[in-house]
Amino acid sequence: MSKILASRSCRFLLIGILALTVSVVPSFAQNNKILGGYFEEWSIYYAGYNIANLQQNGVAAKLTHLMYAFANVTTTPTAACQLADTWADYQSPYLPSVNGQPYTGPLYGNFAAIQQLEGLNPNLKVLISIGGASSSNTAAFVTAASTAEGRAALAASCIDIFINGNIAPGITAPGLFDGFNIDWEFPTASDTQNFTALLAEFRSQLNALSKTTGKTYVMSFDGPAGSQNYVNIDLRKAAKQVDFITIDGYNYSGSWVTQTNDASSLFDSKQDPLYGQDLDINDTVNAYLSAGVPASKYTMGLPLYGAGWTGVPNVNRGLYQNSTGPSPVPNANGIGLCPDLSGNTPGCDPLLTSGLATYGTLVNLQANGYSVYFDPIRVAASLYDPTSGTFYTYDNPRTAVAKMLYIDLRVPGGLGGAYVWALKDDDANGDMVKTMATWLGR
Questions:
Q1: 209: part of which helix (H) or strand (E)?
Q2: d(Cα 149, Cα 153) in Å, to the nearest integer?
Q3: Which of 123, 337, 352, 362 has the smallest CB count inside 10 Å?
Q4: Smallest Cα–Cα separation from 261: which of 280, 248, 282, 247?
Q5: CATH 3.20.20.80 domain span(s) along the chain
Q6: Where in the chain is the domain with CATH 3.10.50.10?
Q7: First CA to last CA across the chain, in angstroms?
Q8: 128: enclosing H helix or E strand
Q9: Is the separation of the CB atoms in 250 and 280 below 8 Å?
């Protein structure tokens, strides 16, 4: 099979054919792959999605790694980790129990729920993701990583809070997290050496801690999909410092441009007006592997949300067409549009953002005027409603199956695995994550 995939045209055909059948799990599916998922601390608010949901819908049992997003970075007065939302993290006493037992304090919030989740899923590794898209976090990473003293201080602070568990005065939770996911968005050319040095400092301090505790800690970082960003990372050297890399497999397009396109396609297509610009997962994989990243450390990201446009003419099922702007926010049940994006109106798509919608909502749109299309050349799915002129690009179980096959077959031994952003955006049953798990042999 791997030899067949060496030919790009044959690979396209193979993935397209296999993606048509999702009911039979291949015997070559491997169960040693990573399956990760990001849990956003703010999902407990409007979305009403809690750590307890992961246990109730069976998703926690499928995951190998849970990434909790995010912790902040500060350099005032010194480089340090900082909790981003203390109420959500450890103070709220109102979150549903994971194991049926009440939270007794003094630790509450998501952190107490994570403790219960780990008790029920002892093989699950929970990582704290540090950084994110905040410009203040990016600036703090730049400053902290620019000196040896700053790097050492930041790593020591993060370890003290999240590994040693010194959450707040009088509140401790040793071993709450099993490691780190560094999400520095995005290093510039002047940060290249410092980025690697920061990872090395985290790795060094974790290795030193292992000698004391006897535990093994996990290190990863989030790798961008766009070449304008990953070119500023010494991928080969950075990869040596981590166990795996969570590499974005999404946002290749979105409503920040006016022409519709696929946001998370597996392959390029000559039909795409932007053909040859590496706006697909396969080209990203090629770039990382060519740069010296071991295939076993490549963890492919799948979005559990779609990008949407409106004012799209009924041509080519809405694909590669000019729009009048981002799609309006739909109601979560797929019927009608959200009347109020303030978060005060229940029932809207939980992202509350024009041009975006969760997979859980998009599934409901299929019963309300939208037709589903699958492109076997690009391995991409889309939804289009000619009446409203609204188009969404997204991932569904068919594309998920094909991507898991790609992970298994891309190189001998396969890639490292897959992850999703974000867990709350799946349907209530967690069907996307469970599909991925099945086809990774989990």
A1: helix 192-213
A2: 6
A3: 123
A4: 280
A5: 21-303+396-439
A6: 305-394
A7: 21
A8: strand 125-132
A9: no
One pLDDT digit (tens) per residue for the chain, 442 residues: 443 343 354 355 445 545 454 455 555 566 789 999 999 999 999 999 999 999 999 999 999 999 999 999 999 999 999 999 999 999 999 999 999 999 999 999 999 999 999 999 999 999 999 999 999 999 999 999 999 999 999 999 999 999 999 999 999 999 999 999 999 999 999 999 999 999 999 999 999 999 999 999 999 999 999 999 999 999 999 999 999 999 999 999 999 999 999 999 999 999 999 999 999 999 999 999 999 999 999 999 999 999 999 999 999 999 999 999 999 999 999 999 999 999 999 999 999 999 999 999 999 999 899 999 999 999 999 999 999 999 999 999 999 999 999 999 999 999 999 999 999 999 999 999 999 999 999 8
**Whole-angstrom distance, CA of residue 148 vs CA of residue 204:** 13
The burial class, CB within 10 Å (0-12 / 13-18 / 19+), for 243 is: buried
Q: Is 246 helix (H, G, I), strand (E, B) or coil?
A: strand
Of 3.40.50.2300, 3.40.50.150, 3.20.20.80, 3.30.360.10, the CATH number of 21-303+396-439 is 3.20.20.80
Cα–Cα dist 241/234, whole Å: 11
DSSP sequence for 7-25: SHHHHHHHHHHHTT--SS-
- What are the percentages of helix, strand and coil residues in the chain, rounded to 5? 35, 20, 45
> Is residue 285 a contact partner of residue 278, using CB atoms and an 8 Å limit?
no
Q: What residue has token string 């203040």?
A: 136
Find where tokens 């599934």 sit: 363
CATH architecture of 305-394: Roll (3.10)
pTM of the complete model: 0.95
The residue behind tokens 């410009």 is 135
- Name, in order, each residue with C-beta under 8 angstroms of 354's C-beta and a sequence gap of 6 or more: 255, 325, 326, 327, 328, 329, 341
Q: In this structure, what is the dihedral angle of CA atoms 278, 282, 286, 288, given to the nearest 10 degrees? A: 90
